[in-house]
Amino acid sequence: MPLFASLPPSHQLFIMEKGKPVEIQQQKETVRIETFSDGVFCIAVTLLSIEIGVEVKGSETNSGLLHSLLAKWPICLAYVTSFVNVLLAWIGHHGLFKNLRNTDNGVMIANGLLLMLVALVPFPTRTLGLFLQTGALQAAVIFYTGYFVLISLAFRLLWWAACRHPHLLAQDITAAQIRQTTRNENTGLVCNSIIMAVAFVNPVTSLALSFVMWVYWIAAG
């Protein structure tokens, strides 16, 4: 028999009034979602590195291998860019869930949409790396930066799903913290949209602005 059920009714009522069983169950639900999400983020960054490698072309020489390694710089640049973006997304995801004490179907669906996009980050990353030195540079950068606009939209949707009902939020969260998180999500969406818009005019500048975004989020954190 469970320990809680074996207690006298008066003690059960006292515990329920304190909210402990409910609170523990709520924390368990958010931990399960975070653990699953962490696994998806981990897989995404692992898949990013799969595209990095050199092909053996028969009888190789030292200079030939060095040339092949140097020729991989676009893929390496795309990898670093995506890794940092995914890392910052993971940090943002962790910070967002610190503000939650409960979940519902809306939160789980929004979180699932975000994870679906994160898991596919290797696709735009590979596209950017392959076409960085071609005449399709602009299209590749637009696709890449546009993809992170979608991720920003997913983050905004997740936060909206989380804060639309007060009982989903942490008990000690303040109105100022809610406004600050909302402001951060809106800022990320606007900045990524501007970066994508710049890619239509100058793709190199667009990529440079992505690096500026890193500095901003690291400083803001």
Number of domains: 1
Report the C-alpha radius of gyration, rounded.
Answer: 23 Å
How many strands? 0
Residue fraction in strands: under 5%
The outline comes out as elongated
Low-confidence stretches: 1-19
Distance between the termini: 47 Å
Strand/helix succession: HHHHHHHHHH
Mean pLDDT across every amino acid position: 83
CATH topology: I/LWEQ domain
The CATH first-level class comes to: Mainly Alpha
Put simply, the count of helices is: 10
Q: Which range best describes the helical content: under 10%, 10-25%, 25-40%, 40-55%, 55-70% or over 70%?
A: over 70%
**SS-derived structural category:** mainly alpha
| Largest sheet composition | none
- Which architecture would the CATH scheme give at its second level? Up-down Bundle
Entry summary:
With 221 residues, this protein is mostly helical. It contains ten helices and no strands.
Describe the structure.
- By secondary structure, the protein is mainly alpha-helical.
Topology:
Layout: H1 3-6, H2 9-18, H3 20-48, H4 62-70, H5 73-97, H6 105-119, H7 122-131, H8 137-163, H9 175-199, H10 203-220
Helix pairs in contact: 3-5, 3-6, 5-7, 5-10, 6-8, 7-8, 8-9, 8-10, 9-10
